[in-house]
Amino acid sequence: MRSVPAAAYAYVLGAVLGTLWCVLPALRAPTSWTTLGLLAALYALCELPGHCPYTGDSLPVRPGSFFPVLLAAAFLLPPAAAALVAVPGALLSRVDRRPAAVRRIWRAAQLALATWAAARTYALLGVDHIPGPPDFPYALLPAAAGALAFCLVLGLLECGVLASAERLPPRSAWRSAGAPGGPAGAGRPGGPGGPVGAAAVPYLVHGLAGLMMAVLWRSPYGPVSAVFVLLPMYISCWLFAQYHRESAAHRATIRSLVQAVDIKDRYTRGHGERVGRASVLIARELRMDEERLEAVRFAGILHDVGKLGVPTRILRKDGPLTPHERRVIELHPEYGHEITRGIGFLREAREAILHHHERLDGTGYPHGLAGDAIPEFARVVAVADAFDAMTSTRSYSRARPVPVALKELERCAGAQFDPRMVTALVRALARDGWETAVTSDEPLLPPQRDGAQATAAVPRHPAAAPGPDRSPGPRDGCR
């Protein structure tokens, strides 16, 4: 979002006015300015560099790593004073997108209001902000409620700014605001990411850390001891950044390989992505864990990567293939297995790349495996591959309706496909639906009278050269 719409300016102004209304009592009532100043300085020190200390620019810090400071303020100070703690740090925080001033002001108002809500909730549950430390462990429940209030207010405010700044429907805005782990201020006026829904659990952890800071702050050891509570946050920040750098490298590797296949075998552009999506639908129906879901998605996306080893003239040949050319194409699973051999994170996905053209009756290739000897991922990808091929419109064939394609898969279950995988796909599509696709920019076949395009919406995919998929399989049904 390069410019902020007028509605978003009005929304931010409303948040600022709300913040002023919340903090005004701190200027009229007795306030522990020393505690407020120290906490505000600590939060500003955490936010100012935008990076973990001692590691330079190589390690970005998520603002949520320092929410325990704000929650500690909510547990130590009256609501109006606690809200002020967030303001200096938010105004000094790093903003990567314009308009920076609006985003910083929005972030300050958003965090101030959330901190005020946390402190107010904490106080309403019977915990007075007294000079002594919070009454631990009796303060656990009020602290948890305060952390959840902090989370909820952040989510509601984020939902509102998304709806006004990006004109999203309320439901879509709420889902976007609730995406756990959303990047700070990504495309928004400085928002700290989606904090509701599944992300409530991390906020409870922040609340516990904030309560520990508050207890230590008022203990005989003093404020210095409370700072050490942030050390686990720095460590988790480092681990989080390492994980996301590794994930980004994985995605870049997959993207490069997919682009290479799309360039060489253009008429199946988008096929790998859809096979990956269908594979995940099947795997989720089989209740595979999240780690395996990611692996089976990679397997589906890269199942045809071995076509990089097949001569382009064969892949793009318009006429029938000779027996020799067909044997060359049948080598593509082995080529794919070799291409991905050195990519450690693929692991189980490589077996699917190698065996996705095996058949349950043992007549497939490259090794003629049968039954349960075929790796599970390969049986998943085989069904997803055939389904997408039958439901995608290409220059030489029109898409089959989804129900027709599923009936064809069921007809071939037990001989060519694993019946469990076919049944899982049928159940998943009954629940989630599917969109057929066009994978060629050539003129389509004349309209058919049997309603071949009667299925869901048909998104158009970019250019693809004509020519059938030469890999043996049920492109026009099971063989």
What's the gist of this structure?
The chain is mainly α. The protein contains 19 helices and two strands. It has two domains: 6-228, no CATH class; 265-438, Hypothetical protein af1432 (Orthogonal Bundle).
Walk me through what this model shows.
Residues 439-479 are annotated as: Disordered. The chain is an all-alpha fold. It has 2 domains: 6-228, no CATH class; 265-438, Hypothetical protein af1432. 57% of the residues lie in helices and 1% in strands. It has 19 helices and 2 strands. A two-stranded parallel sheet has the order 1-2. The chain is elongated. It starts with 5 loop residues before the first helix and ends in a 41-residue tail after the last strand.
Topology:
Elements: H1 6-28, H2 33-47, H3 67-76, H4 79-92, H5 100-124, H6 140-165, H7 170-177, H8 200-217, H9 223-227, H10 230-264, H11 271-285, H12 290-301, H13 312-315, H14 323-329, H15 332-339, H16 348-355, H17 376-391, E1 392-393, H18 402-412, H19 419-432, E2 437-438
